[in-house]
Target: FxsC protein
Amino acid sequence: MHASTQQRAADHRPYFFLSYAHTPGYGGGSDPDMWVERLFQDLCGHVMAMTNLPAGAPAGFMDREIRSGEGWSERLGSVLANCRVFVPLFSPRYFASEMCGKEWYAFEQRAIHHRARSNQPAEAIVPALWVPVPPSQLPGPAERLQFNHRDFGDRYVSDGLYGLIKLTLFAQDYEQAVYHLAKRIVHVADTVRISSGRPLDFRLVPSAFGAPGSGAGAPRPMRITIAAPTRHDLPEGRNPEYYGDNPQEWNPYHPASARPLAYVAEELVRSLNYQAHITSFDEEPGQREGKQPPTTPEILLVDRWALRDEDLRRRLAAFDAENRPWVTMVVPWCRDDHQSRAAEAELTEKLEQTMPVKMRQGRAFCRVAAKGVPSMEAFGQVLPQVVEVAAQQYLRHATVYPPAGGRQSERTRLMGPMGNTQFIPDMHDPATDAEDV
Model:
């Protein structure tokens, strides 16, 4: 038996998850999502014909399959943790939907963790055009997908599946597009073979398209700073397997993760529609001296072993004393690293003495992140929360530029780090204010 046939026979997970934006009903007419359901059934028929899935095994999933009384959060989380391919139906309504953004985010986390473990490419998102969307309206996660829609036909590109399915004149174009979409789903599922993940709670996960109401647009900036030694300046006796030639190559979750943490963090931040810039704490010492207004929100990843370097410890203490709430700290600390476990009490005390402000600053999950994140999965869960705190604090503390003419508008004007002007809503949060130090 061929290898791919054997893999199919042993794997009965759904081939695809169809992610779509619900269309509101209007005028008491027919169900507006009936056409999406027809597309789903057509795709399932092709997938069953192209594979040897047994009778009763699901070819795909759409949320209409959630039965009344079934926990929707648990069901969606379970399917997205196990399906092989994610198929988002692009439309203007899709990218305005917080739920669609949550579904995209949940699946993308699986792909990121798969790449971290295997260090292999794992792009298992196959987009489909329901209604054509101008490139300027695509959020960062959709814009970055390398996908040629013209492979499914020119009429498909100009009218989308909705236009083809509604007009009898284009019936042949619809059949062609759906057939090729099904072929692409099966091909990606069989070649990428993304591993199953841990289900996420949909009541807690963020949207891959940004905060509700933020709309599409250029990804927001976010700095990721690494405070860690290199393999050339390790404390005496420290295992060099976790380090590289520069701090950005620090890999605290080795061997479970095959990739340096900075680049996994970059992907996680990017999946939240931010553009990450990776740097080390040593690269720009001039910018670390003296109280200055922020130029971007920042995530500081600290290796406790770095605190045995007295010079770095002194500079971290000075940085902490400046009280920069737009910088949130995460301390990766692998529970499977026996050497780190043995030194945990000593190095935890050093960190508490060196950076007391960061250790008690922010909300509860920020303080948890500062006390030690034990695994890659836990890191993926906490990072979106500390990213959002850093972004909110940045908006509160960044330099405000009043609008021209002296009139005060309803929105403040912030000058972005690249010199572009942005209109940002007031992010004042009394709960966060109370926890600032």
